[in-house]
TrEMBL record:
Catalytic activity: (6R)-NADHX = (6S)-NADHX; (6R)-NADPHX = (6S)-NADPHX; (6S)-NADHX + ADP = AMP + phosphate + NADH + H(+); (6S)-NADPHX + ADP = AMP + phosphate + NADPH + H(+)
Taxonomic lineage: Bacteria, Pseudomonadati, Pseudomonadota, Alphaproteobacteria, Sphingomonadales
Binding site for AMP: K375, G376, A377, D378, T379, G404
This protein's name: Bifunctional NAD(P)H-hydrate repair enzyme
GO MF terms, alphabetically ordered: ADP-dependent NAD(P)H-hydrate dehydratase activity; ATP binding; metal ion binding; NAD(P)HX epimerase activity
Positions bound to K(+): N62, D118, S154
GO biological process, one term: nicotinamide nucleotide metabolic process
Species, as recorded: Sphingomonas adhaesiva
Gene assigned in the entry: nnrE
HAMAP family: NADHX_dehydratase (MF_01965), NADHX_epimerase (MF_01966)
InterPro entries per UniProt: Carbohydrate_kinase_pred_CS, CARKD, Nnr, Ribokinase-like, YjeF_N_dom, YjeF_N_dom_sf
Assigned EC number: 4.2.1.136, 5.1.99.6
Length: 457
């Protein structure tokens, strides 16, 4: 079992193509099934302890993997039973069932066990389980102490994370060969529990990956405030939002943060206050400008946004600015941009998303020629060239006012510090999520920036 951080993410079609390539190169379907089943069995041996194991097998190759796993567990001396939803329908699955050799209980009447392994359907499912199978699966998972899904919990759409019916949550999902979008996209991700990859010996290259922890280097001995990056935050109608973004940028490693606009009472003394004029915006030392947090949506806000768009500086565009700008305006700029919309802001700027969240983020990045951070419980970061990063679910306590402003500031610090826009967005998202994890429950946005310092330490 391999942790998923940094691993490639493959759609159902990409995974089929990878398996087809392996088969074309001389690996049989049966050999792939043996590898998968052995990997599943080895993982179950590590997780299940001495308890009885019940493996639920479907009619396809996912079920075949389950039969192979059952035979390996039995050979290892474990108490294991098999229940099936239907007879195998593929040649490889029939061979695997014959290799099991033991009794096969009907799924509908199967007795519960402390450990249950769902090998019913997995990747590629396009419809809900029939009512009888769904009820049996829900009953057996509910009665188990440990539940494990093979590839995906049965009943989740691989590429979108959509629930095709009632899908019980499992404790662990063993992704065969590669991570799939549904392991990270909601609502399916909430049903997967801890996800680990079981290698099956196929090539799994992809332009999409799971977000990994960035390298957070300490400043070099000859560093100074401008080599560490200068961030300018444009103050809007709601001063607190600008304050949160600026404070986050300071704690996320920026060497110099300037608030452009009227002074905010109570702001840290380290925050530089400057008039929002042409001289301030023309400062060549600026590595990133944050525009949008608390900006407002009136004519004055629109004018401020226009001034930001007219600069040659890299921009982090957030909040209200995402309601005022258009994709053609963004595409006309040549300087780097990172957009940080939540679902409502995304729809306001790009229209209602179609396809998966991954598809929507990629299309938006291409339309705007910008890096798009499509925020939420399943944040997706996409670049115009098709690269994408999917973040594991963060703290549910991030669903509070101001946390998006903190994220914008953290991303700006990474951008001003010299990271490429796609990498800066990923580093900021990871730092934001880790700060939330360390903050614990019931934090407010003001708490997050201070927790970033501990991460660097």
């Amino acid at each position: 079992m391999i942790p998923i951080s940094g691993m490639p993410v493959l759609t159902a079609a990409q995974m089929r193509a990878a398996e087809d390539s392996a088969i074309a190169a001389g690996t049989s379907v049966g050999a792939l099934m043996q590898r998968a089943g052995h990997g599943i069995a080895d993982a179950v041996l590590r997780l299940a302890g001495p308890h009885e194991i019940l493996i639920l097998c479907g009619p396809g190759n996912n079920g075949g993997d389950g039969y192979v796993a059952a035979a390996r567990l039995l050979a290892a001396g474990r108490k294991v039973r098999v229940a099936a939803a239907a007879d195998p329908r593929s040649d490889a699955a029939r061979v695997a069932r014959n290799g099991w050799g033991g009794a096969v209980e009907p799924l509908a009447t199967a007795r519960a066990a402390p450990v249950v392994v769902d090998a019913l359907f997995g990747t590629g499912l396009s419809r809900a389980l029939d009512a009888g199978a769904a009820a049996a699966l829900a009953r057996l998972v509910a009665q188990a102490t440990l539940s494990i899904a093979v590839d995906l919990p049965s009943g989740i759409a691989t590429d979108t994370g959509a629930l095709l019916g009632d899908v019980p949550a499992v404790d662990v999902t063993l992704a065969l060969g590669a991570v799939k979008p549904a392991h990270l996209l909601q609502p399916g991700a909430t049903r997967c529990g801890a996800v680990r990859v079981v290698p099956i010996g196929v090539e799994t290259a992809s332009a999409a990956h799971v977000l990994a922890a960035p390298a957070l280097a300490t400043p070099a001995p000859d560093s100074h405030k401008f080599t560490r990056g200068m961030v300018a935050v444009m103050k809007g109608r709601m001063a607190g939002a600008s304050h949160l973004a600026a404070t986050a940028a300071m704690h996320a490693g920026a060497g110099y943060v300037a608030l452009l606009g009227p002074t905010i009472p109570g702001a840290p003394h380290a925050l530089v206050r400057r008039r929002l004029d042409d001289a301030a915006l023309d400062d060549a030392r600026i590595g990133a400008v944050v525009v949008g947090p608390g900006l407002g949506r009136d004519d004055e806000a629109r004018a401020l946004l226009g001034r930001a768009l007219a600069t040659a500086h890299p921009l982090v565009i957030d909040g209200d600015a995402l309601h005022l700008v258009t994709p053609p305006q963004l595409a006309a700029r040549t300087a780097p941009m990172i957009l940080t919309p939540h679902a409502g802001e995304f729809a306001a700027l790009f229209g209602a998303p179609s396809g998966s969240k991954l598809d929507a983020a990629r299309a938006a990045a291409q339309a705007s020629v910008a890096v798009v951070v499509f925020k939420g419980a399943d944040t997706v970061i996409a670049a115009p060239d098709g690269r994408a990063t999917l973040a594991s679910a963060g703290s549910a306590w991030l669903s509070t006012a101001g946390t998006g402003d903190v994220l914008a500031g953290a991303i700006a610090a990474m951008l001003a510090g010299g990271r490429a826009p796609f990498d800066a967005a990923g580093a900021g998202v990871w730092l934001h999520a880790e700060a939330a994890r360390r903050a614990g429950p019931a934090f407010i946005a003001d708490d997050l920036a201070a927790h970033m310092a501990g991460i660097f330490a």
